[in-house]
Amino acid sequence: MGRIKQQVDFDWSGADASFRRAAALEPGNPESARMAASSARMLGRFEEALQLARRAVALDPLNADSWQSLGDTEYYAGQLDESATDYEKALELNPDVFPGNISLSRTYIAQGRAQDALSEIERVRYDPERASLHAIAYYALGRKKEAAAALSELIAKYRASTAYQIAEVYAFRNQSDEAFEWLDRAYVQRDDDLIVTKVDPLLKNLHPDARYTALLRKLNMPN
After folding, report:
1. 1-98 falls under which CATH superfamily?
2. Which of 64, 70, 132, 162 is within CB 3.0–4.6 Å of 97 for a Cys-Cys bond?
């Protein structure tokens, strides 16, 4: 119920209540704790999210998904060193954990380690994600021609399903008009990734723009 309210209805408070209810009804279930942590972090309640994510790890320390969830929470909270360590732990426990290499690549870029990110991106199996990550990593390294080629590939091949990721690339490049154009398309497409709009570090260049605040209102995101 929480997932439906979150991703279909953009009913964030209703979804959050469902995730909290699940965690309360089954406090020993690490998945319930992970989902409640995910809901809290998407709404910017990072301390609560960290407590829940750590609870999931404590309940099942060998569960790669729980370490991935903790890494996600730390990434969005800006705790990048901790995030990288916990993503690496998740991949050590399960090399196929999702989104695993994608998340670690993003963290490396946020840390200013774009060259390290390139090696990690080669392990990403999902072609659209690999193209979007290449577009960002190459741009961070000043390799503008390769960055432009990766972005062109992303748009040409995957525009129907990756509007939000295209917006992330443009936002990282500080091209606000193009970023908002693709965010509007993501909204029309009901893109799953819109759930992280409020906390996504790749959109930080858009925060001063009034269109960003308007988008959060359109998504029914609470302040």
Report:
1. Tetratricopeptide repeat domain (1.25.40.10)
2. 64
